[in-house]
Amino acid sequence: MDDSNIIALYWQRDEAAIAETKAKYGRYCFAIAQNILVSRADAEECEADTYLEAWNKIPPAKPWALSAFLGKITRALAIDRWRRTRAQKRGGGEAELSLEELAECVPDRSSVEDAIGAAELARVISAFLRELPEEECSLFLRRYWYFDSVDALCRRYGMGASKVKMRLLRTREKLRKHLEQEEIIL
Fold first, then answer.
1. Omega of the bond leading into 107 within 30 degrees of 0 (cis)
2. Could you give the C-alpha distances from 82 to 37, 45, 46, 93, in angstroms and in order?
């Protein structure tokens, strides 16, 4: 079933919308949650929470890209769960590693909001990503949006670990310079 038909089911408040969403995007949502949470049970719960959140948001929302809409919900839910778990016990994982890597070039959220606002930061980063070559952008997004491990990136792109790490480092440095040029960080 195509996305417009699934969204129409949500608007009609037809529970088949959930089943159709799960059939089409279940693996996608689970993969996002799994990369962040590293726990199958937590990822499954997060996936289920995504369907509930989509049910509660559609309507009034009418997403133009259902996959992006669901991915954003799943990612936010998984990060919230990860933060709660992390607050209870300190531990490693790809999400923590990815966020630590990005901390080198992206300023503290509270200072960004004070200076220009989180929406402006998102706009600038989005513009930066559109300027990157496709593979570089994809590599960056897979690491810092989907929290893919370096090993998973090596397999996906057919590169060695040192090459993946170096390309990510160079892209983060480009991002840092871009943010400086935009006067988001000084």
1. no
2. 6, 12, 11, 10
Rounded to the nearest angstrom, the gap between the alpha carbon of residue 49 and the centroid of all alpha carbons in its chain is: 16
Q: For 183, how many CA atoms within 13 A lie in the half-sphere containing its CB?
A: 2
Q: How many CB atoms lie within 10 A of CB 181?
A: 11
Tens-place pLDDT, residues 41-88: 999 999 999 999 999 999 999 999 999 999 999 999 999 888 887 765
Q: Of 119 and 26, which is predicted with more confidence?
A: 26
**3 state SS of 148:** coil
Please name the amino acid found at residue 48.
A
Q: Are 71 and 28 in contact (CB under 8 A)?
A: yes
- Number of other CB atoms surrounding residue 43 within 10 Å: 22
Q: pTM of the entire structure? A: 0.68
